[in-house]
TrEMBL record, chain A:
Listed InterPro entries: Beta-barrel_TonB (IPR000531), Beta-barrel_TonB_sf (IPR036942), CarboxyPept-like_regulatory (IPR008969), Plug_dom (IPR012910), Plug_dom_sf (IPR037066), TonB-dep_OMP_SusC/RagA (IPR023996), TonB-dep_OMP_SusC/RagA_CS (IPR023997), TonB-dep_rcpt-like (IPR039426)
Family: Belongs to the TonB-dependent receptor family.
Keywords, sorted A to Z: Cell outer membrane, Membrane, Receptor, Signal, TonB box, Transmembrane, Transmembrane beta strand, Transport
Ranges where the TonB-dependent receptor-like beta-barrel domain occurs: 455-982
Record protein name field: TonB-dependent receptor
Taxonomic lineage of the native organism: Bacteria, Pseudomonadati, Bacteroidota, Flavobacteriia, Flavobacteriales
Biological source species: Flavobacterium franklandianum
UniProt-annotated location(s): Cell outer membrane
UniProtKB/TrEMBL annotation, chain B:
Keywords associated with the record: Cell outer membrane, Membrane, Signal
Protein name as annotated: RagB/SusD family nutrient uptake outer membrane protein
Xref: CDD domains: SusD
Coiled coil (residue ranges): none
Keyword Iron belongs to the record: no
Domain RagB/SusD residue range list: 288-503
Domain of life (superkingdom): Bacteria
Residue ranges annotated for the SusD-like N-terminal domain, each copy included: 87-217
UniProt cross-references to SUPFAM superfamilies, sorted A to Z: TPR-like
Location, primary (coarse class): membrane
Length: 1024, 503
């Protein structure tokens, strides 16, 4: 943290320098001049408020003190005053030279502008389903990425988080309707680019989430999973404003498993062997060493920390504006050997001359991730630090040999563990990944005539990724194969260039309003990589030589263009409304994509939407309803889940015949293909209602949606083994999935007292149903994936497991569990798990798996946000609640298998004298089918209630009053303390019920999921 | 305004060049442009040999023959593995190592099918074309041989796979018929040997006939098996094969492809590899990991070990010079591999005594690297001698005996015994007694080379009674455990398939 301060100072100086480049104040002279002040009702100036001569584009914006000057004005003009969040006013000049205006806050915010793709419209005119999320709420959270911050803040959005530094979250909008990809499309300032961990959330000015077909259809072939539109900040007219925010905190793993210490372990391990009639290993018997008592979780975890520093500068003249920012984010992880660090620099500028506006938004981002290098020997710390035996030391002289020069404790024949020594992992296997990235756009906008403008927008995303992996000599696991040390450099480039021409039009005739956009869009995306590896690294004392030239072994290189595709589209939208009462929106897009064969290349994506503002009808007269609107939409969207060349069968040249002592090239088609790949199509209906009640104190928005995906491209499906297919499952247009659900967003605010408070609530239900799985064979209406089955009529990826029914308490019970007198579990002993013979064939086999009756999908997801202000204090809280889902706890499965693992401290194995327990008998499973069955993986024994309610964030702030600050020439100063993930109410026994899962079809598997950290942080916001 | 609009339309037209949407894959050639010439044919058949160093084939498959038989045992702490390969307990038909073996055999079949489907249409030298097709028939036959031996009733994929293939299960009899057909087609096309040293390791006519004979013997057609073996023992091929004088040379990295080698899988080291997956990258593992999995604890995973009773079988008979049978120390690594005992027996650079004290565990030694290195690993280079000439001679003797020509059979057994230094057999044995002797000879000559399970199966000896030698057989159920369970994964996908009896 310390060493980066100079870097930031440098950035700040650069920033300041840039600011002077953009000062601009050339006013023209004229005869009639009007000046005045625009203020809020409390007398505070409204810098940036707009004043326009009604019916023209001529006008100005208020300066920093809310003052404006208009020259060359007809004396009979009408001036329109407007400001975001305030009600607009029209005032006749009547020859006056001074006009002071007080704007009234528009608590209904209906004039709030929403970006819906190639166009901005007033929120009150929306016909589709769009959620707007306040960036202030986002930035209360200390996170790696935008998606992580969005958790719980909008209806219809499902976010599942991890906790690894630099890790992205899983985000879904209105469920999962694809077997492959459920990620939404991100648009950053008009550029299609992923808002992942390389993007700085502090630069965000607005976030809009397009959820239905009407809203998203303008993005056609890429929009089926929803669209998140991000606009970054821009400058307002006025002098330079500098804001600094600094936030730093500590991070902890929320909890660890309660496992045994070495003497407890030794006792139970002895019992286990004795129960099986075996001699216990000497590590827990004669050679038990009381001095070794390794708490592996303690060794591997640490107190992490976060630092987030942002400096922003903005301002502008009459015809130009700028926003610049620099940021530094650092995160030392809660596990040793992991960290993430990001530096960003943003330049957003805009300038105008006559009818031409030119602007750009550009982000430069440089991130570094440090983590253990992935390999055979890396393992998952969230398994290994729990299961590793406490009788094995972290290091020991007895372990030192040529293959284990570090002497890492990995176990012996007398203390067998196949868990990796996770301390050794961080030492032997190292990786640093650097992402250097540019994301941005530049545009020219020409106001051709009133109501018609042309825009040429060029977007670019270019990233240069470099990962350096170092494997040192050493082992991390008992008996593991010896592998040579090496250095691996992997460089990859990604580029995506978007070019768009659009025409926006806007026409008002009487009460008829017509506006819209037409355009063309062309995007080219390319990704390539080259990999260089050489074995046998050089180390001198503590110094590890990190460059390939320092190695002395064998070299390898690889390289490929992994992506190269182009998408070409025609787009258009027409919005019509009559008197803000009746609305009609027609949207359409035609896309062509190189990822399909010629015959299947073109897709059409139309949509239609309408809305009716009932509250504007003359017959409507309900005084406590201020605004009421209903809307409905239908449309079709697409998604491409294919790689660039998937439709073509290709020859794999990687196989090698070892003949005559050398490797000779072998070639054949390793991966099967399906050439008839088509678009994945999604038909979506949306019905919504929006209302403002009780003088706009209560706002409600509700929606019901019904979305059907057709021709869902199904990849990564289990494929028959006998096909001998390698290199990935061939995609087929096989599936159809329906998502229906209800969403509610409600808010209430009370500003009438000195204690001002507000509360927001959102609720999401998602009902997911597989409609079709394609031709998978006679009588097969499901797709089986590991622990789950996706069957027609059921949700995607339902648990499909053996069913258990408690423990056998006696031999008599085992005998009674029989068919025609033959025991169903002949190997079982008292204290073993009883399985239900679902198919009634008298045996327990995989054919007895069944739907467990519980789902990996929550029945209800909610978010609650609370905010309050009292005098100079502010308090906010965010809660996230997820209810009704079940999680498969594979870490517990491994612990409770009892084999080669430490034990839970509270494990209570069944014995004849201890029958009141749910833990089966303990013993050594080799040659004991009963014990093997008890630990069977695909059983409902490992399912647990995954419901939780979490205090996601709580923040208490204090803002210094202006009087105090004026003396030190500071405009704003706020200090605050934040607690994140402070408590979670759940029955789940794993570390965190918020699991990312194992892909879309096994979403509820806790595969040693990295839990979200608990964070306590302090921050300061400074403006001057 | 008008001009702008025209410009806009113009831009639209210019931008919509749909030819730009035809992207060429710069990484790999497409199917359409391959299978055009001789080089393509050779590359195609080479991919079949690549299967031999895939993990399922080179690592797990030998265990299914060694450990599931009565000479092997697994004390693997991975109890699922020990139970599956030693104790006939496999509740999960999708159990990874088993599926790996099943899968790799089908990978090999898919590769052979690609050659068989595409090479006939290539205009090329007809001799070479025949040879390549012969190699492909061999590989398909060899992979079905393993599937027939281990799973019995499987599906027959006889053309390039398509994602929608849902074939029905073929009976064990049908699968064996396919094995015999393919290997017969192979033997008819393959050359006696290869002139170019670069081709060392390619399958020969002798190799195809030897495996064909094994297949016939498994269905107890000894007459046809003998005919296939004639080529190697009395026919054209006989001059190419002999026994090496030092038995242990068959298992050393220094004496690969010797005169005794009939079918030998070749392995070399690739020090930079990062995967066993041979299609993911050309930089994959070219070695075998059987050593890593067979090596004793502290060196390798020790998943597959030997039982101690066969040692006594070796000690029944001394050589004519009154020495211990030299095949014993070549076969097992145990406390008396060196006759002087554990203090003199070296185990990867340390004495047995140092490493294990009084431990009585026994490791299969034949494919370990302890004669050359002090470690194992996944990159073993010791070639797997799949069929040796000694095996051929003993098979030949067994066929002669089975077809009533017992007297002709002695010479072949005696040749094998003589190399070990044992005296010739006393003549005059009955057919039954001779078979019993053959069983003893095969145990001593071939233990730890992956033949024992099929031998026991052919002789009808697989039964719970073997539990006196191998307690794992306590769980053996006749009519069930001769075969492994078909992976449920495939049954889940293909309703035309059926599970093996009693599983």
């Amino acid at each position: 943290m310390k060493k980066n301060v100079p870097k930031l100072i440098k950035l700040a100086i650069t920033l300041t320098f840039c600011l002077f480049a953009f000062t601009n104040s050339a006013y023209s002279q004229s005869q009639i001049t009007i000046s005045g002040e625009i203020k809020g009702i409390d007398g505070t100036p409204l810098p940036g408020a707009n004043v326009l001569i009604s019916g023209t584009q001529t006008g100005s914006a208020a300066d920093f003190d809310g003052k404006f000057v208009l020259r060359n004005i007809p004396s009979n003009a009408v001036l329109d005053f407007s400001y975001i969040g305030f009600q607009s006013q029209s005032i006749e000049v009547n020859g006056r030279a001074t006009i002071n205006v007080v704007l009234i806050a528009d608590s209904n915010n209906l004039d709030e502008v929403v970006i819906i793709g190639y166009q901005s419209i007033r929120k009150k005119d929306l016909t589709g389903a769009v959620s707007v999320v306040d960036p202030i709420k986002i930035n209360k959270n200390i996170t790696n990425s935008l998606a992580e911050s969005l958790q719980g803040l909008a209806a219809g959005i499902t976010v599942r988080n991890g906790g690894q530094p630099g890790q992205n979250s899983q985000i879904e909008i209105r469920g999962a309707a694809s077997f492959v990809n459920s990620n939404p499309l991100y648009i950053i300032d008009g550029m299609i680019a992923d808002a992942n961990q390389t993007v700085n959330n502090n630069d965000i000015e607005s976030i809009q989430i397009l959820k239905d077909a009407s809203a998203a259809a303008i993005y056609g072939s890429r929009a089926a999973n929803g669209v998140i539109i991000i606009k970054t900040k821009s400058g307002k007219e006025g002098p330079l404003k500098i804001s600094v925010t600094l936030n730093t905190g500590i991070q902890q793993i929320p909890q660890t498993w309660d496992v045994m210490n070495s003497s407890q372990y030794a006792n139970l391990q002895k019992t286990s062997f004795t129960n099986s009639g075996l001699i216990p290993p000497s590590s827990v018997g004669a050679n038990f060493n009381p001095n070794i008592n390794t708490d592996w979780q303690n060794e591997v975890t640490q107190t992490g920390n976060t630092l987030d520093l942002n400096i922003g500068a903005s301002g502008g003249g009459k015809n130009s504006s700028y926003f610049l920012s620099a940021s530094q984010y650092e995160n030392k992880g809660v596990l040793i050997g992991r960290s993430f660090q990001r530096t960003t620099f943003r330049i957003n500028t805009q300038m105008k001359k006559g009818i031409v506006t030119i602007g750009e938004n550009l982000l430069l981002s440089n991130s570094n991730t440090k983590q253990p290098l992935g390999s055979f020997d890396t393992g998952n710390p969230f398994f290994d630090m729990v299961t590793m035996l406490p009788v094995i030391p972290v290091k020991g002289a007895e372990y030192i040999n040529a293959n284990n020069p570090g002497g890492w404790g990995i176990g012996t024949v007398d203390a067998v563990s196949f868990s990796k020594n996770q301390v050794a992992v961080t030492d032997v296997l190292r990786e640093r990944i650097n992402f250097a990235k540019i994301v941005g756009n530049a545009f020219v906008n020409v106001d051709i005539m009133e109501g018609l403008s042309y825009k040429f927008n060029v977007g670019i995303e270019a990233s240069y990724d470099f990962s350096k992996g170092i494997r040192r000599n050493g082992v991390t696991q008992f008996n593991a194969a010896v592998r040579p040390s090496f250095i691996a450099d992997n460089r990859s480039r990604f580029s995506s260039i978007l070019m768009e021409h659009t025409l926006n039009f806007n026409k008002k005739v009487g009460k008829h309003n017509l506006n819209g956009v037409v355009g063309i869009s062309d995007q080219q995306t390319k990704r390539d990589f080259s990999l260089a590896v050489r074995s046998d690294i050089t180390e001198l004392g503590d110094q590890i030589f990190t460059e390939i030239n320092s190695t002395t072994g064998t070299s390898v290189s690889e390289g490929a263009i992994t992506d190269d595709y182009r998408t070409f589209g025609y787009l258009g939208r027409i919005n019509y409304d009559y008197d803000s009462k009746y609305y009609l929106t027609l949207t359409g897009r035609i896309d062509e994509d190189s990822r399909f064969s010629k015959a299947h290349r073109t897709g059409n994506f139309p949509s239609i939407a309408g809305a009716w503002r009932i509250s504007k009808e003359s017959f409507f007269n309900v005084p406590w309803i201020n605004d009421l609107k209903v809307n409905a939409s239908y449309g079709e969207l697409g998604i491409v889940t294919l790689g660039s060349f998937d439709w073509q069968g290709t020859i794999n040249n990687n196989t090698r015949a070892i003949l005559g002592g050398v490797a000779q090239v072998g070639s054949y088609q390793a991966t099967l293909v399906n050439p008839d790949l088509r678009w994945e199509n999604r038909k979506t209906q949306n019905y919504g209602l929006e209302a403002s009640l009780f003088n706009n104190a209560v706002k409600l928005s509700a929606a019901y949606y019904n979305s059907l995906s057709e021709d869902a491209l199904v990849t990564n499906l289990p494929i028959a083994v006998y096909l001998g297919n390698l290199g990935g499952t061939p995609p087929v247009n096989a599936g159809s999935i329906r998502n229906t659900g209800f969403e509610l967003e409600a808010s209430y605010k009370n500003t009438s007292n000195e204690l001002k408070w507000n509360v927001g609530f959102n609720l999401t239900t998602i009902k997911n149903r597989v409609e079709e799985v394609g031709n998978r064979g006679e009588g097969i209406d499901y797709i089986q994936t590991g622990l789950t089955r996706s069957k027609v009529g059921q949700p995607l990826g339902q648990w499909y497991l053996l069913k258990t029914d408690g423990l056998f308490q006696s031999q008599a019970e085992i005998a009674a569990h029989s068919l025609n007198g033959n025991p169903i579990q002949p190997f079982a002993k008292p204290g073993d798990v009883k399985f239900i013979d679902v198919n009634g064939d008298g045996k327990i086999t995989d054919t007895d798996r069944d739907f467990s009756g519980s789902s990996s999908w929550p029945t209800l997801q909610t978010g609650i946000q609370f905010g309050a202000n009292y005098k100079n204090f502010d308090l906010s809280a965010q809660f996230v609640g997820v209810f009704g889902n079940e999680i498969f706890n594979s870490v517990r499965q491994q612990l409770d298998s009892y084999q080669n693992t430490n034990f839970r401290s509270d494990v209570n194995p069944w014995t004849a004298a201890n029958t009141n327990t749910s833990d089966p008998r303990i013993g050594v499973a080799t040659n004991d089918q009963g014990l093997v069955d008890n630990a069977r993986f695909s059983s409902d024994r490992w399912l647990e209630d995954g419901s939780y309610l979490r205090l996601r964030n709580i923040q208490l702030g204090y803002s210094f009053s202006e009087d105090v600050l004026k003396k030190v020439k500071i405009t704003g100063l706020r200090v605050y303390a934040t607690g994140q993930n402070l408590f979670t109410i759940t029955k789940y026994s794993g570390l965190d019920p918020d699991v990312q899962g194992n892909g879309i079809l096994e979403r509820g598997v806790d595969n040693g999921n990295w839990p979200a950290s608990r964070i306590i942080a302090f921050g300061v916001n400074l403006e001057f | 305004m008008k001009n702008i609009f025209i410009l806009f339309v113009l831009l639209t037209v210019i931008s919509s060049c749909s030819d730009e949407l035809d992207k060429v894959n710069p990484n790999e050639v497409t199917n359409q442009s391959f299978w055009k010439n001789e080089t393509d044919a050779i590359k195609g058949i080479n991919s079949c040999y690549s299967t031999l160093h895939r993990g399922g084939f080179s690592r797990w498959q030998p265990m299914l023959y060694d450990v599931r038989s009565d000479v092997g045992v697994s004390y693997s702490p991975w109890s699922d593995l020990a139970n599956a390969i030693n104790n006939f307990i496999q509740p999960d038909s999708n159990f990874g190592p088993m599926v790996d073996v099943y899968f790799d055999n089908y990978v090999g079949i898919n590769r052979a099918n690609a050659v068989l489907a595409n090479v006939p249409a290539i205009g090329m030298d007809s001799n070479l074309k025949e040879r390549v097709l012969g190699e492909a028939y061999f590989f398909r036959g060899m992979h079905y041989y393993h599937l027939a031996s281990l799973w019995g009733n499987v599906v027959l994929q006889l053309g390039p796979s398509a994602p929608t293939d849902l074939p029905a299960t073929s009976s064990e009899t049908q699968v064996w018929a396919q094995v015999i057909k393919d290997l017969t087609d192979a033997a008819a096309r393959l050359p006696k040997n290869y002139a170019d040293p670069k081709d060392q390791g390619r399958i020969t006519k002798g190799g195809a006939n030897a495996l064909l004979a094994k297949a016939y013997m498994q269905i107890r057609d000894y007459e046809s098996a003998k005919k296939a073996l004639d080529y190697l023992v009395t026919g054209d091929g006989a001059s190419s094969y002999n026994l090496v004088s030092n038995y242990a040379d068959n298992f050393k990295i220094t004496s690969e492809f010797n005169v005794e080698s009939v079918i030998e899988w070749s392995y070399i080291e690739n020090p930079t590899e990062g995967t066993d997956n041979d299609v993911q990258t050309a930089n994959h593992n070219f070695g075998t990991s059987v050593g890593q999995f067979y090596a004793p604890p502290g060196v390798g995973w020790s998943d597959a070990e030997a039982l101690r009773w066969p040692i006594a079988e070796f000690e029944i008979e001394k050589t004519i010079t009154n020495q211990r049978d030299p095949r014993l120390p070549a076969t097992f690594l145990y406390n008396f591999t060196n006759e002087a005992g554990p203090a003199a027996t070296m185990v990867y650079g340390e004495t047995f005594l140092q490493r294990y004290g009084n431990n009585k565990r026994v490791s299969f030694r034949k494919f370990l690297h302890d004669h050359a290195r002090n470690f194992e690993g996944y990159r073993g280079i010791n070639n797997y001698r799949f069929i040796r000439y000694a095996d051929v001679l003993l098979m030949y003797a067994e066929c002669l005996n089975a077809t009533g020509k017992t007297n002709d059979a002695y010479q072949y057994v005696n040749r094998v015994r003589a190399r070990a230094g044992l005296a010739p057999l006393t003549t005059g044995m009955s057919q039954t007694a001779f078979l019993t002797q053959i069983k003893h000879e095969r145990l001593l000559e071939l233990t730890g080379e992956g033949h024992r399970f099929n031998d026991l199966k052919r002789w009808g000896d697989l039964a719970p009674t073997l539990s006196s030698k191998d307690p794992g057989f306590n769980n053996f159920v006749k009519g069930k455990h001769e075969l492994l369970p078909i992976p449920q994964r495939d049954l889940d996908i293909n309703p035309n398939m059926s599970q093996n009896p009693n599983w």
